[in-house]
Design goal:
- By secondary structure, the chain is an alpha+beta fold.
- It contains 14 helices and 6 strands.
- A hairpin with a 4-residue loop joins strand 4 and strand 5.
- Helix 3 crosses helix 4 and helix 9 crosses helix 12.
């Protein structure tokens, strides 16, 4: 069964593979072109919790500015964090640099799952993806697309996340020894373009005849998911102070949310935030910005001053708003364009 299914999927992939900046096409792979492990690894880190559409431009910018892992390893932390701004989950950017520097010390990426797992910031998913895609190792890669495909193919009714071990087990039985890198990308492409969350295009699927959920008429209802917990709401006060073309900025602590990023000063974030103005000033209420993180919603009251005294935190410096984390970029938009973002 494994060979029949993998052969059918690989034939489909040969004709339908998505074109991506970090990917080597099936035809080029057969001609002997090997993927660049650096580009594969970078894409996988960027794609965590982010869409392909959002990642393309970031990946192209990163590889244009730092074309090798050695170049990235030599980059200044602030430069990399600035380029990362807008992708979210900033711990990934810090781990990206740690991993790049470890690889630069080694001289190259390890070519096995075990070797990749030993690198900082690389977990089981990324290790499997890089091992399979970059080095053609028979590693089983399971992302959200693969979970959906396997849930439907095998009619797995157990809701996520409890179903993860069962899904991985069936996915491992299908991973072929031939062309495992193309197969890993093929399953992800199948989930992204055909076996979609809503209205799957079953008649275009190379696995339609053996899909247990399609035969049972329940494909669109899978995978099952546990009800989502209601996200709590946190509040805070954000201080925007400027002197002409200079803005009061501070670097956030390395640990914690948005760690290491350059940002406007804020109070604590919680149910009852305590005011913490970073300078003596006539602060004016400029409105509020809202942002949603993985585990909570954040509402920040934005206070503005254009004639602040000496700062007790941070320093005045020129600002490229594009380097700010998204929530702080919303505050910049609010005070410069007079409009608030509720998203």
């Amino acid at each position: 069964m494994r060979d029949t299914l993998s052969d059918a999927l690989l034939s489909w992939y040969d004709a339908n593979a998505r074109v991506m900046p970090w990917r080597v096409s099936p035809a080029d792979r057969r001609a002997g072109v090997r993927p660049d492990p650096y580009r594969v690894w970078l894409s996988e880190v960027m794609l965590q919790q982010t869409t392909v559409a959002a990642v393309r431009a970031y990946h192209e910018r990163f590889t244009a500015r730092w074309p090798t892992v050695q170049a990235l390893a030599a980059a200044e932390d602030a430069e990399v964090m600035g380029e990362w701004a807008g992708l979210g989950y900033y711990a990934r950017a810090r781990n990206l640099l740690k991993c790049a520097r470890a690889v630069a010390e080694l001289g190259a990426f390890p070519d096995t799952e075990e070797g990749l797992l030993a690198l900082p910031g690389i977990g089981p998913y990324t290790a499997a993806a890089v091992a399979a895609i970059a080095f053609d190792r028979p590693a089983t890669v399971v992302d959200g697309n693969v979970e959906r495909v396997m849930s439907r193919l095998h009619h797995i009714e157990t809701p996520l996340p409890a179903a993860k071990p069962e899904i991985r087990a069936v996915a491992e039985t299908l991973t072929p020894s031939a062309r495992p890198g193309d197969y890993a990308q093929a399953v992800m492409d199948l989930g992204a373009t055909v076996c979609t969350p809503r209205k799957p295009l079953c008649m275009l699927c190379p696995w339609r005849d053996g899909c247990a959920a399609r035969l049972a008429g329940v494909a669109e209802t899978l995978p099952r998911k546990m009800p989502k917990k209601v996200k709590p709401v946190r509040r805070g006060i954000l201080y925007v102070a400027r002197r002409g073309d200079l803005w009061l900025l501070e670097q956030r602590p390395d640990s914690g949310l948005l760690g290491g990023m350059l940002a406007f000063p804020t109070s604590d974030w919680g149910d009852d935030p305590k005011p913490a103005p970073p300078a003596l000033a006539d602060w004016k209420d400029a409105g509020e910005v809202r942002h949603t993180f993985t585990h909570f919603h954040l509402i920040l009251r934005v206070m503005l001053s254009e004639a602040p005294g000496p700062p007790s935190r941070g320093e005045f410096a020129p600002l490229d708003p594009g380097t700010l984390p998204t929530v702080f970029r919303k505050a910049h938009t609010l005070v410069t364009q007079g409009r608030s973002s509720k998203r």
